[in-house]
Amino acid sequence: MSATGKAWDEGxxxxxxxxxxxxxxxxSPPRPVELVSLIVARAEPEPGTAPEQAAxxxxxxxxxxxxxxxxxxxxxxxxxxxxxxxxxxxxxVEVRAPVPAAELPDPELxxxxxxxxxxx
Length: 120
Known about the structure:
The structure is a single chain. The N terminus is likely disordered. α2 crosses α3. 35% of the residues lie in helices and 8% in strands. The chain has a domain of 63 residues. This is DUF742 domain-containing protein. It holds the Pfam family DUF742. InterPro entries: DUF742 (IPR007995).
């Protein structure tokens, strides 16, 4: 309930999420996970796995970006990155670099192909 006594509705502020896990001291900084990083599951969900983490493991049988996972789970990216950090730490997912953008072909080559097609 809000301060005015009204219940929260879908038109109200964003819901807040908390993902907590006792990580203890970490000897090295976690691997950076970017919005376009590709995530691939390396394990199946085990009994007792948090529902959100289990969903990530099921949906990432094929590479999905962090942005896609966030959209499918309807969770903020910041929450998804925390979920992924735990899965990464346990070795249950793998992070891959995004596929680099393809280079555009040489404009002269395109022009030659167009002329060749026009001459057919």
